[in-house]
Amino acid sequence: MAETRFHVLGIGNAIVDVVAYADDEFLVKHGLDKGRMTLIDADRTKALYGAMAPAGESSGGSAANTVASLASLGLACAFVGKVHDDQWGAVFRHDIRTLGVAFDTLLSRGGAPTARCLIFVTPDAQRTMQTFLGACVELGPGDVHENEIAAAEITYLEGYLWDPPGAKQAFVKAAGLAHAAGRRVALSLSDPLCVARHREDFLDLVNDHVDILFANEAEITTLYRVDEFDTALQSVRGHCAIAALTRSEQGSVVVSGDQVHVVDAHVPARLVDTTGAGDAYAAGFLFGVVQGRDLHDCAHLGGVAAAEVIGHFGARPEIPLKQVIAEKDR
Amino acid sequence: MAETRFHVLGIGNAIVDVVAYADDEFLVKHGLDKGRMTLIDADRTKALYGAMAPAGESSGGSAANTVASLASLGLACAFVGKVHDDQWGAVFRHDIRTLGVAFDTLLSRGGAPTARCLIFVTPDAQRTMQTFLGACVELGPGDVHENEIAAAEITYLEGYLWDPPGAKQAFVKAAGLAHAAGRRVALSLSDPLCVARHREDFLDLVNDHVDILFANEAEITTLYRVDEFDTALQSVRGHCAIAALTRSEQGSVVVSGDQVHVVDAHVPARLVDTTGAGDAYAAGFLFGVVQGRDLHDCAHLGGVAAAEVIGHFGARPEIPLKQVIAEKDR
Lengths: 330, 330
Known about the structure:
alpha/beta; UDP-N-acetylmuramoyl-L-alanine:D-glutamate ligase; five-stranded mixed β-sheet; 13 strands; 38% helix
């Protein structure tokens, strides 16, 4: 096996989040699908941003959030994703590199600007996301390098990558390289609408290529086209080594072979903005996996990480997660 | 008198804030003057940003923050300030215009990018600011228009404008136009180091041109070169119609002719980041002034607005201040 340089390498859409409060009336008026991620074009982005309340900007992107949290926990990480050579791209690069993450994907210099996700946070702390993929559509298999993938214990992929066509090829290439190097592949299903768009592909992936699967209740039931969470849980069992299924305030259920662990949620001090909760959960969980902790502990660590992120605006931890986990990891 | 179109017109540096946590060790290591605003050049900005933790970006600038809060309170406002035609400039424009603020200063197209302020928030919620003025240095008297100034009940100026040379001329022109139109001029002293840099000018201003003065304890004692707050308070009395002097958790003292009002601070639910506390106080206070409230009420409203802003990262209210005031204004 190649020398291990990274605990986790993430591949995902490199996005700057634009976050503001909105009420439910705003969502209805603008036809936004509450709680979901919708892809929008440049014109729609301009119109929606024009209507949006004053916002805060911060680095986002699902896999990138997970990698940032893992680095914040002290793990060695790498990230592959495409930003433009613009001010938002500089913000994205700064925020991930300053955590010590290796991020060397070539900048896009022509074409669309760095991707942005307009996030509308309602008073119930739910987030509704409208994503302009921008430079992310230029990510392709040429951005995935064998030596990097082979050097990572786990290659972590987000389901959202299935949307831009070149990224999907990058995804498949990365999974192949990881397994050829005797490494593990983790996947987050990202969003129920995204699962619905690419259901057959995701079923093949889960059956044949994924060792560790992350999904929430809506995503896993959409994948198996079932109504009941328990039915979906039985369907996924045996198809990948570990499936970590999150259920918001009901905590998470981890399935691995004959084992099923039901783990309580960690109650946050405040519930402000659920953006990034799933990404942080995956980070806490993988932190446990890398350390060889048992699956119950992994799920507990996932819950602690998620609780930090939902206590404030923005998808990434505000204070080093290492500090948070040290206080809460019993 | 000209038709009144604006309750308040603000003139200030148009800045995007870049906010991250830092510990005191970081401040010492990088030679940062805790709690103060320091001007830095492009090279120093690059070096400090490179060392800074992952950050969140949001619109800032002292007078701009005050205007944003006033608009969030439902007042009709205008703002004059210079941003570059870049992504940060677009963020600044969006955030202030979406509140209904008239902001029509011509964009800078050559020269430096939109100004940024690197803000390091320590665990004690204190903020240390490092400002790269960027496009702000291009603001000049040509950006101040008589019809706008004459249409505003109050022209509000930040002391920081004394740093870029052209802005200072814009400031003097605006104050002259406001008084010629029978309007009032308000000034915030901004920062003790800024007061020290321009002390003689500020004394002349306060004596001859300012109707409503905002200053904190460090700023007013620096202005009069005295050790005691009470001595400074006696010095300012009679030099401008109203002086509102803030003392952090000790609340504020308002001096106007023979009247002295000592008003308690409003205790925030949480103390996270004091950035923008003074700007929000000025907004709450001016909101009261415009409504013809008594000075004690004005100071109380200032305290309520400040309490909202220090409860989270970032210098501007996260939820509409109108809502906050409606709940707290007894």
